[in-house]
Amino acid sequence: MAGSQLLRRFRRGVALAGYNYKVWFRRHRRQLFLRWRDGDIADQMADYRRSIEARDWSAALPKALALGSIAKSRGEVHLLDELSKALMRMGAYGPAAELKIARRHIVEGRVDGEWLGQDISGQVLLVDLMETEKQGLATAIHHASSVGRALARAARLIVLVEHRLVPLFQRTFPAADVRAVGPGTEAAYGEAQLFAGVQHLTAVFETDETTIREHFVPLKPDPARVADLRARYRKDGRPLVGVAWGSSNPGKDLPPLAAWRGLLGRQDLQFVSLQYGRIEPDLKILTDGDPARILHDVLVDQLVDMDLFAAQVAAMDAVVTISNTGAHLAGALGIPSVFILGDGFKRSWPVEGDRTPYYPSAVLVSKRERPWAAVMEDAQNHMGSLISAT
C-alpha cells in the first residue's frame, strides 16, 4: 500500500478511536452492558474489579489476562481499552500491547505495512511516537529507548516526534532520521515501507521488566547548555535539586503546597523550580517568605524550548516531582529522581513496588492512602539517599 493510502487509513482509525468513538459508546453503552450481562463476562468483570478495588494485584493480574483473551475473541473494544491499560500498570507489558494492537485492528481493520517484529533488515521503518493527540510528549519520552533497538533492526529508520523533542532525539539517535510531526508527515509515511507506533514497539521490545531495564538508553541533553546552567545555579557548591509540584490536570491527586515545606526547608540543598506556568503565587507559599529557597529561572520555558528544559533537568543532582512530563524527562535522562504519586488505578505508573523499569534511576513514592505529610517525609528520605549516592 502506498504511504499516502496508509496514512489516510491510519488517520481514519485515529478518528474512530478518538472523539467519535466516545460519542458512539455513550449512545450504545446500555446495549454493550446487556451483551456482557448475557454471558459470564459480566460476572468475571465484577470479580476482577473487586480485586482492583482491594488492590489485590496478584489476584487481579490473571483475571485481567483471562478477560483480555475473551475481549479479543469477542471484539469488545471498550474492554480491550480498559484491560490493556490495566495490564500495563500491573507490569504485563507485552500482553497489554497485544490488546492495544487487537483493539486497533477491530476499530480500523488491519493496515498493510504494520510492523509486528518481522525481519526488516533491508527495509525503511517509520516509528511514529505521536500517533494520536492523546499521546503527548510523555509517551514519546517513555518509549524512547526502543527507538535505538528499532534502529538496529531496519536498514533505515524515520522517527516522528513533537517538534520540541527533535533536537533531543537527534542527539540521542544520530543514525536515525528524526522529524517533527506536521506538514511533512505524509511525505515521511510515503518514504517508509513499514510503520510502528508505541504499541508496536512495546509488543516487540518492551515485553517484560528485565528486558526494558537492560535496554534503557538515556536521552542526551546539550552538554554545553547543561554545563552553563549548572555553573550558574551551583555557585555555593550545594547540590542542586529540581522540584515540580503542580499540574494542569484537575484529576490528579497532588500533595498540597504546604506539605512541601519540610522538604524545601533543607538549607544544605539548592532547590530549582522545574514547574511550568505562572508559578509566582505558588512560590510565596512554598518558600514561606524566603524566596531564595527556590531558584526560578525565567529564561527556561519547557512549553517553548524543551531542549533547554532537558538541559536544566540534566543539570540537577536530583529531582523530586509529581507525575508530569518533567518526571518522564528526568527519568529518561537518567537523573536520580523521586516521583510522588497519588492514589488511584488511573495513573500510568506501576501499581506495585517503588521502581519502574523504564526509568532505572527513579524511585516511586506512592500515597497508598497515607497522609500527605508521611508521603512527603518518605520522599525527603529517598531524596537524601539519592544525593548521598551521587
UniProtKB/TrEMBL annotation:
Q: Which SUPFAM superfamilies match?
A: UDP-Glycosyltransferase/glycogen phosphorylase (SSF53756)
Q: Which Gene3D superfamilies match?
A: Glycogen Phosphorylase B (3.40.50.2000)
Name this polypeptide is given: Glycosyltransferase family 9 protein
Q: Which domain of life is it from?
A: Bacteria
